[in-house]
Amino acid sequence: IKILAIESSCDETAAAVVVNGRDMRSNVISSQIALHTLYGGVVPEIASRKHIEKINQVIAQALSDADMTLQDMDAIGVTYGPGLVGALLVGVAEAKAISYAANIPLVGVHHIEGHISANYIENPDLKPPFLCLVVSGGHTHLVKVTDYGTYEILGRTRDDAAGEAFDKVARAIGLGYPGGPKIEKVSHEGDPKAISFPRAKIADGVYDFSFSGLKSAVLNYLNGCRMKNLPINQADVAASFQQSVTDVLVDHARHAIREYHMDSFAIAGGVASNGVIRAAMEQMCREEGVKFYHPSPILCTDNAAMIGAAAYYDFIAGKRAGLDLNAVPNLKLGE
Ligand code: ATP
Ligand code: MG
Ligand code: FE
């Protein structure tokens, strides 16, 4: 089964060809990061316009990289939520047009299912059930993947997502957008034990997360330094913040592995490309005796190959979308 996948939920215009959900034949990503850096974050209106400009050439490139044509495709998979409504609409409209014009079945894909499914591409042995920690720009979900396309959410963030915390802290210490990679880079020069930031625990939800308190603690620390005219060591703040996020993520994951007796654990989403978080997860999994899976960095952040992987399992389960498929900006996982 050959799937042309399209992703445009945020600031990446992406298309890919994936065969049987695991064999990635092409993966084209046109990132708008440079464009939005000017404004310190993603500007939705600009993102939509740029998607329109790029989408046709990105799809053409994905097909040509895969050495295939539209006529070779068995299905079109497209992200229809969650994300920015204007950005999503570009991909959805494009996918519907292709589906109608070339008479190819359409499959609507949940963006977070895509992030989780990125793990299938480079790990042929990974099969449900497994636990997955999704850490992205808008989500922090601890999920039990009971079967392909079947998810049980064990915990989620009560406020900011992990990636959002990285982005906000990066802005506060003057690193700018996008925050995650910049914090990781400067953290190598810092001491993760230099400043003791909080590790939030939630009394009535052992698997839930909270990152807004950590963000406030960083802001308070910075303000305190400024008021007392003390120097701020950017690298120490970055490393200490990153360590706090890492400890909380690892702690929750370890707890879930023990309680649910899973033998496989995966991470997904943009924050999963963080080397410090990855190494800590890997060590925890070794200690707990479970297999650790993660996508390569390029498949952690937004891409269409992950949408193709998810679309395949939806497709073989018989799921189809009609030409009435619409963008759903706040689509929930498992609906
Ligand atoms: P969502 O998937 O929840 O809809 P999104 O698509 O915007 O949100 P992703 O593209 O999955 O999010 O990931 C982007 C996020 O990942 C950003 O918040 C970014 O700062 C973070 N990120 C990327 N690389 C790293 C890194 N090396 N370390 C930490 N965070 C990172
Ligand atoms: Mg992005
Ligand atoms: Fe994403």
TrEMBL record:
Residues annotated to bind Fe cation: H111, H115, D302
Annotated keywords: Acyltransferase, Cytoplasm, Hydrolase, Iron, Metal-binding, Protease, Transferase, tRNA processing
Residues annotated as domain Gcp-like: 25-308
Catalytic activity field: L-threonylcarbamoyladenylate + adenosine(37) in tRNA = N(6)-L-threonylcarbamoyladenosine(37) in tRNA + AMP + H(+)
Pfam families: TsaD (PF00814)
Cofactor note text: Binds 1 Fe(2+) ion per subunit.
Superkingdom of the source species: Bacteria
EC number(s) per entry: 2.3.1.234
Cofactor: Fe(2+)
Chain sites annotated for binding substrate: V134, V135, S136, G137, G138, D167, G180, E184, N274
PANTHER family documented for this protein: TRNA N6-ADENOSINE THREONYLCARBAMOYLTRANSFERASE, TRNA N6-ADENOSINE THREONYLCARBAMOYLTRANSFERASE, MITOCHONDRIAL
Family listed: Belongs to the KAE1 / TsaD family.
The protein's role, per its UniProt record: Required for the formation of a threonylcarbamoyl group on adenosine at position 37 (t(6)A37) in tRNAs that read codons beginning with adenine. Is involved in the transfer of the threonylcarbamoyl moiety of threonylcarbamoyl-AMP (TC-AMP) to the N6 group of A37, together with TsaE and TsaB. TsaD likely plays a direct catalytic role in this reaction.
Protein name, per record: tRNA N6-adenosine threonylcarbamoyltransferase
